[in-house]
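Hey, I was hoping to borrow your eyes for a little while. I've been puzzling over a protein and I'd love to understand its fold better. The fold is given in discrete form, as structure tokens running alongside the sequence. I'd be grateful if you could look everything over and explain what you see. No rush at all, and the record is pasted right below.
>
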Amino acid sequence: MKNIWGLIIFALVSNTSLADTAMPSSKELLKNFDKLGIADKGKWKNGESPDGVKLLSYRVDGDIYSLNPEFASSISINSGKKNKDEFLHSEGICKNLVFGVVGEKSKDIDNAVSDIVYGAAKSAERTTGEAIKDFWVEASFISIDKYPALACKVSKLVTWD
């Protein structure tokens, strides 16, 4: 009986019960973004966050994608002059972020991201998040100086093996 309890405890603390929170590798993410026509894998820049975390970034005008080992993010900065057009553009940047991380474009993912972005727009906190596939997707409306922006973040959902 003593050996059974030892085996049970070992199983609970061994690698078989560790949480899986790893994002796809940078190589896989770059391949996804390139394959889906979102961002050319040769145009990403190496960088570092203010706290020293290595990251990759891709920028086109006021839109920035960023990949690091813990999450992927995008920010779409607008002029605030063409609200509807800019909102739809920013929503598209958020959708592309999720497509790139998940590795596929689909109507289900498209609709789910729209729900998250519209939820953030309606929320008093101006932020919301939901699960899509195996990822947690967040959208936040923020301002940078006087410019409105939509920030999106995708991280791995915690699952137990």
Observations:
- The two ends are 26 Å apart (CA to CA).
